[in-house]
């Protein structure tokens, strides 16, 4: 069950480089790009990754080997991803032709907290393994067998990193089935909501979603000097994508989940 992940160390000031991998600053965008909005608020630009720079760490060759991969999220509202109406709160764009990209200006209606400092992303490759919550979806009785390792699991979660690909470091519950059902239009804020999903649809999600959905990006709290971007209460955001869409390099249907302690 081992998967490769690309660990992201984010935290030092970065100088602008056209189409460079970085967090924050101004994104490099093509002419005519329409800035994404959610509920009349512009999405914040989180990070961009030069795909050619990723290839040496992407040992499973899942990501594009050229172009620029850019991540956006509406950081004012910080949607959690259990409501179908959260669709569009997070967007991912793949720009294949670097030659047409240039530093873009932010929307005129963006607030003062909208722009983040340009911050360096240092990348490395690391093996990734499923959290207990994901394992329990595959092996339903495993949580009883791993009770003695609960403290180790919590400690590992606290030390988790931002990353591309691999397994998510889960704070609350396994997210694949949630992504599958909410993206189909089912509201899932609690146990009663899950029970309202038609049994055949819920059964398919619970039994197969973990095989069909995978982590694209996990982002922890980002700190740079006086700047801090935190998700919920010391939480994380997770961009999930179906394996089919990932292999097709179709990033239009990613689903975001926020979890915190």
Overview of this protein structure:
This protein has helices at 51-54, 132-138, 142-145, 150-158, 176-182, 191-196, 199-212, 243-247, and strands spanning 3-13, 22-23, 28-29, 37-38, 41-42, 44-50, 68-73, 90-95, 102-103, 119-128, 162-164, 213-219, 222-224, 227-229, 236-242, 255-259. The chain is an alpha+beta fold and 261 residues long. The chain is 21% helix and 30% strand. It has one domain (3-259): Hypothetical protein YwqG fold, CATH 2.30.320.10.
Short key terms for the protein model shown above:
261 residues, alpha+beta, Hypothetical protein YwqG fold, 6-stranded antiparallel sheet, 4-stranded antiparallel sheet, 8 helices
The overall pLDDT, averaged over residues, is 93
**Count the strands?**
16
The CATH class label is Mainly Beta
What is the name of the CATH superfamily?
Answer: YwqG-like
Helix content: 10-25%
Residue runs with pLDDT of under 50 for 5 or more positions: none
User: What's the oligomerization state?
Assistant: single chain
Q: Within the largest sheet, what's the order of strands?
A: 10-1-11-12-15-16
- Series of H and E elements: EEEEEEHEEEEHHHEHHHEEEEHE
Produce a short descriptive summary.
With 261 residues, this protein is an alpha+beta fold. The protein has eight helices and 16 strands.
Secondary-structure blueprint:
Blueprint: E1 3-13, E2 22-23, E3 28-29, E4 37-38, E5 41-42, E6 44-50, H1 51-54, E7 68-73, E8 90-95, E9 102-103, E10 119-128, H2 132-138, H3 142-145, H4 150-158, E11 162-164, H5 176-182, H6 191-196, H7 199-212, E12 213-219, E13 222-224, E14 227-229, E15 236-242, H8 243-247, E16 255-259
Antiparallel strand pairs: 1-10, 1-11, 2-6, 3-9, 4-5, 6-7, 7-8, 11-12, 12-15, 13-14, 15-16
Helix pairs in contact: 5-7
